[in-house]
Every structure is written in C-alpha cells, then in structure tokens.
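A reminder before we start the practical. When you read a complex entry, don't treat the lines as separate problems. The point of joint prediction is that each chain is placed relative to the others, so the output describes one connected object in space. Small molecules and nucleic acid strands, if listed, are placed in the same frame. In the example below there are two entries. Take a minute to note the order of the lines before looking further.
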Amino acid sequence: MGPSMPHGPFGRLVDEHYAQLYRYAFRLCGTSDAAADLTQEAFVKAQAQFSQLRDPARVKPWLFTILRNTYLQRLRQGRNHREVPLDDLELATSQEETDETYDIEPQKLQEALDELPEVFRTPLILFYFEEFSYRDIAEQMNIPIGTVMSRLARAKAYLRQRLSRIRLQSDDEH
Amino acid sequence: MNCSTVRILTPYLLRPHEMAEDDRALIDAHLAQCAQCRNWVERERQFDRAVARAMKNVDVPADLPVTLFRSLATRRSHRLRMRLTQGAVAVAAAGVIFMLVLSLWNARSVADPVQWAQGEDEQLVLTFNGSRDSVVEFFARRGVKTLVPFDFDYGLLNRMEVVTVEGQPVACLSFQKGANRAKVYVLPRRRFRPPSDPSGMWATGSHCTVEVVEVSRDYLLVIVYFGEANRQLFAAAGTIG
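Here is the predicted structure of the whole assembly.
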C-alpha cells in the first residue's frame, strides 16, 4: 500500500479484502474491466453502509453480499448475459468412471461459468473459494442450505461435462 | 450405510467440518471397506481441487488498490461536502424559523400598565365630565367618526368601546341606571340600512329588546335594552318624555 492509502477501519478493510473481492467479481463478470468496476462500486456502497456492519467478524460475507447485489442490479439494468437453458443443467450427477487427472485452464473455466445462470454460478464460485460454508452461501443468497447443495451438484455436473467436452475437442484437434 | 447414501452425502463429505460426527464416522466406516466409493470420493476431491485452483487463478491488477482508494476518497469528500451543504441548509432553515418565531413573539401586544392607567383615567374623566363632546373626542382618537345621540343622559354612560360589526368598526355606548342597562351601536348608513318594513324596527328577545332608530341621514342607532329597561330611563332631561 502506498502512502496515499487512507487509514482507519475502512481503509484496513479494503486493504485486506480487495483481492478476494476482485477475484469473485472477475468470476462473476468474466472480464477484468468489469470486475474492477464492480469491485469499486461494491466498496463505495460498503463505505456508505459501513456503520451498519454489526459484526466485524462477518465482514467478508457482508462484502461478498454487497458485491453480488451490485452485480445483480447491473444484470437487471439490462446487460445481456448468454446463459445455458436451465434444462441443460438437468444432468445426472453421477460421475463418469475415469482415471484421468484434472487440469483445468482458468480461461476455459471462465467460459463455462459465463454460460451458467447466476443462481448456479454464484454458489459454485463461493464454494470454490473454499472459505465459504454451505451455511454462508445459503445466507448470502438467501436460500435454504438444501437448495445450495442441489444447485451446486447440478452446476458441478454441468461444469464437469463442459470441461470434459473442451478437453475432448482439444485432443481431437491435436 | 450403502454406496448410494455415501454418494448422496458427498457434498458434506467434501466439507467434513460441516458434517455431524456420527454421520462422518458411518461414512468413514463404509469407505474403509468400499474401494469403489473411495475412488469416487477421491475423484470428486481431485475435481474440486482442480476447479478451486483454476477458480482462484485470477491476476489482480497491480494498480487496483490505488484506483480503489482514489475513488473512495473522492466519494468520501463528495459525501462530506453533501453533508456540510445539507447541514448548512438545515442550520439556515432553523435560523429563519427561529427569527420568525422570535418576531411573532415580540410582535405580541404589550400589557402596558401605563396605557391601562391612561384608559382608565379617560373613562373616569368622562364619567365625571358626562359630556357628549368628550364621547365624540374618545371615538375620534380611535379613528371612528361617529354621531353621538342627543337624547341620552351621558351621566349614565358607564362604558365606551369600538366594536366590529360586519367587519366595520363602530361606536358602542353602554348606559346603566340602577339595575337597568342599555347598549347603543352607532352604524354608518353607507354600510348599513334599516329594515324595509317599518314594523320590523323592533324585536324582542328572551332577555332584551332591540330597537333600530334612523337618527340622521348618515347614521342608524341599534339600541339594546336589557330586562325591563326602556329609552325613557336613559333620556336626558328635557329630551324625551
């Protein structure tokens, strides 16, 4: 942090969480410009609502919730997002028997994420940040834990299939 | 516990700390004796690790913190300016309201004992004077040009006041003789006219009698007699009866 960085509790909060928040924003939006913009807007809102943060121990889910709400607001304001129909997510969650090891390219992952509806994409992103429990995800999305788990199962199945297809196509090209 | 139960519980299995101890023990027992499920769980974990690795593989722009703090500082100062402006407007509004209340408060009439004393003295002088001229002067000083009837005994006058009738300030004289009282209102004819029917010049109420008298070309009198009083009781010597 440079000398121009502000001090105080909010300055420390930004310092501690901006990277995580940006990564989350990037996975939601898919581009670095949009992610930076979204992160900035989320922090501006957080700064305005900082006095409403009752439990400092819950600051991270609080920030993530603000960022997601900001993102949803933007989606509602009309930015088109190409998503797969929900029916395509009705996949068997059973795993293909395979002994291959996974090596996933971040860009391919992003392409697969971009195709998912937000209600499936968000739990997936939060889940793979690993630090969020099912309960945290449920609270952030305001849905029951059971719904989080079923959406995760469907989204993972889609992701697995989508990434395998990419890998197969890539193998064919070689 | 069988294989399908273990696979249903996989999401929890991948987050052991979120699972009940008893369930975990049952699953561990099943996994210890089922190679197929062990492989299943291991592949799930590999997939999760691979996705998590890729998911977190996002380069954060080096200038992001500077951009963020600059933007936040700008917003903060903007909000501060807004609050200061709102505060200044609120203070100004409160000041205006305070001045308004203060001026209304100060504009109240003063209960000035000097004025009261002068008023009482005036009444006393008139009582002692008992003259029509002093009555005319009394109303003239209050901006009411009026006619003072000739045929009343001004020695019986006990009160004078300017009252408002139909928005018009008019002279009102009160006479008293013993228990008998009468009030005389002097109305300008440019604003008031007598009843068209001459029989309507009198009226009797439950405790008073009212008479309208066309006393001159410019004025009407409305005389109110209370109780058994009548005009003769208040007449000046040599005028009536």
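Discuss with your neighbour: The longest helix of chain B spans residues 64-106. What might explain this?
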